[in-house]
Specification:
heterodimer; A: mainly beta; 5-stranded mixed sheet; globular; disordered N terminus; B: mainly beta; Porin; 12-stranded antiparallel β-barrel
Chain lengths: ~220, ~290
């Protein structure tokens, strides 16, 4: 991941917060100032070796519903087990060919018999081999300090030890992650606004392909 | 009739068996309007007749996933057409199809191939046109980018009507380029070729029992023909061998994830005994439940 053009406004609110924890609120905005959802903000302590992940990160689910994946973007810690329950009446064939994790779960309805352990950092693109428009992303991270922005473009990364961090913001429509240096104080909440320039949202069209009566 | 009773029974059995381990039914409905400039397939200088037709259809499909890349789809479709100008062309039909579709690889950019057997029956108000028909179809598709897809198909078909003039066989091929300009707006480029039996009409002179075509050359053309009154004036309908080349385009905006509007223009050039053209404009809406 490399640094890209960034418009940076650093506001340290210094609000009084819990004495034993610091947090960074990352707010993502597009050039028009509108909030950007589904961005993954992760913080890595400068100069630190990647910490060993917790022995058993909490399992996560990515559901198939109405022939779409929910959620669209899922950040997880390395070693997380992800289940793919199918809540549709139609079978799905979930797969990924991403280098960080290649797998297939062929043809099932209901709860899949196997959960997938994402054991290498990187971005994993999910698809369904039957329904081409279905796509989702799993962002596998080495650092435990991460969060995903909501509809308001805001993500709170909490319980941060003080220090200097590298903030990385990833989004499916970013050409490359945006990286910024952030200083986390001993306590309180710092706010970091990150401007991102997104590529147009191009997904495979889902609407039916109509064919009018031709010449007979 | 090219297919034996045994073959037709096997087709119906396969349609039924395909439902047993399948998901569905997946229901879709469609409705539309078509205008043709030469609905009677008349060559100049005979008078061409234009007409509007309203169509509606409902389809139920059952899909079985045989393996990660292979789908078996069986479907049943009921359809109806109304032609206010020429009520003889009003029709209702029931069709079934069995399609095997195989994706050659993983992902949206893997090509697919398909083979299908289709059959059905259509009843016309001009009962001499009522027919049973069927075809074998081979198809393939390839997505070139997220926005661009090429689809090709070949059909070998036949129809057996109450009157032999409206019966026949044909082969056709089609090529479609789908360009998703945005996720909502799709442009389609269409090209087609058909070779086989066509029904061409020639204005007729004479009186009952003694009709002959205005074009004396057509009279000499020794093919099945008959007098028809479908188009409000005396015509002789000939069953001829003809080659049709068609081309056109369409705009297909998506109205949400399950509905598409289609606005299409097709220009068809047929060379049978004579050369004639037909311009076909159509607007339709399709909704998947």
């Amino acid at each position: 991941m490399t640094s890209r053009r960034v418009a940076l406004a650093l506001l340290i609110l210094g609000a009084a917060g819990p004495a034993h924890a610091a947090a960074v609120r990352v707010m993502t905005r597009d050039p028009a100032g509108l909030p950007v959802a589904d961005a993954v903000a992760s913080l890595t302590l400068d100069g630190a070796r990647p910490a060993a992940p917790p022995a058993a990160p909490a399992p996560v689910e990515i559901v198939q519903r109405d022939e779409e994946f929910e959620p669209y973007v899922t950040p997880v810690l390395v070693g997380t087990r992800v289940a793919f329950p199918n809540r549709d009446k139609v079978q799905h064939h979930v797969y990924s060919v991403s280098p960080a994790k290649r797998f297939e779960i062929p043809l099932y309805i209901g709860d899949s018999k196997e959960a997938i352990v994402f054991d290498h950092p990187g971005v994993v693109t999910l698809g369904c081999n039957i329904h081409d428009w279905m796509v989702a992303y799993v962002v596998v991270l080495s650092t435990p300090y991460f969060a995903k922005t909501g509809a308001d473009g805001s993500a709170l990364v909490a319980a941060l030890p003080p220090g200097h961090y590298r903030l990385s913001v990833w989004h499916p429509r970013l050409k490359a992650a945006v990286e910024v240096d952030v200083a986390v104080p001993d306590q309180g909440e710092a706010t970091q606004v990150v401007s991102v320039v997104l590529r147009p949202d191009r997904r495979i069209r889902r609407a039916p392909d109509a064919g009018a009566a031709g010449y007979r | 009739m090219p297919f034996s009773t045994a073959a037709r029974l096997a087709f119906l059995f396969a349609l039924g068996a395909a439902r047993l381990a399948a998901d569905g039914p997946y229901l879709s409905v469609a409705a539309g309007e078509t205008w043709q400039s030469n609905v009677n397939n008349a060559p100049p200088p005979d008078v061409t007749r234009s007409a509007w037709t309203t169509q509606a259809s409902a389809e139920g499909a059952w899909i079985a996933s045989l393996d990660f890349g292979t789908l078996l789809t069986s479907s049943l479709q009921a359809s109806a057409e109304d032609c206010p100008t020429f009520h003889g062309l009003d029709a209702a039909g029931l069709d079934g199809s069995l399609t095997l579709r195989r994706k050659l690889g993983l992902g949206a950019f893997a090509p697919y191939v398909s083979v299908a057997a289709e059959g059905g029956a259509t009843g016309y108000q001009d009962t001499e046109r009522s027919e049973v028909a069927g075809d074998l179809a081979i198809g393939a598709g390839q997505r070139l980018t997220d926005a661009l897809q090429v689809v090709a198909s070949v059909h070998l078909g036949w129809q057996s009507a109450r009157d032999e003039v409206f019966s026949g066989s044909y082969a056709d091929a089609g090529l479609t380029l789908n360009w998703d300009v945005t996720e909502t707006w799709r442009l389609k480029l269409l090209g087609g070729w058909r070779d086989g039996d066509v029904v061409t009409t020639y204005a007729a002179l004479g009186e009952a029992g003694e009709w002959y075509p205005v074009d004396p050359g057509a009279y000499a053309y020794a093919r099945p023909y008959k007098y028809i009154s479908t188009f409000g004036a005396p015509y002789l309908a000939y069953r001829l061998r003809g080659r049709t080349v068609s081309g056109g385009g369409a705009l297909a905006p998506a109205l949400g994830a399950h509905t598409t509007l289609l606005l299409q223009f097709l220009r068809c050039k047929t060379q049978g005994y004579d050369l004639y053209f037909n311009n076909v404009f159509s607007a339709s809406i399709t909704h998947d439940f």
